[in-house]
Write a structure and sequence with these properties.
Layout (H helix, E strand, L loop, with lengths): L9 H6 L12 H12 L4 E6 L21 E6 L13 H15 L2
Parallel strand pairs: 1-2
Keywords: Aminopeptidase, Hydrolase, Protease
InterPro entries: AB_hydrolase_fold
Protein name: Secreted tripeptidyl aminopeptidase
Length: 106
Amino acid sequence: YLSIKTAKGYLKKLMVPKGAENVKFSPALYNHTVEFLTKNDPKMVYIYGDIDPWGASGIYGLPFTKNKKNLHVYMCHGGSHKTRILSFPEPTRQEIISLIGSWLKE
């Protein structure tokens, strides 16, 4: 088994390239994205797995996703970061594929 003394700073150790360790987080891009999605209705499909911790920064459940015609958000029960269209049950999978297919025909 793998054991570590502490998880402190693990994200920087594992995810951040050398030389970028001291870069500070800026919410600017996130805020810009939310503003765009709030004001617009782009043809987009968002796919999440409900056990993916990275989904915490996603748009699933945010108020602006309601009442959008073109923006579709799907949550796969038991899905992780590797969730794909094929991860969904057949009816949902066909719904997503049909939706994208209809956009491609436009």
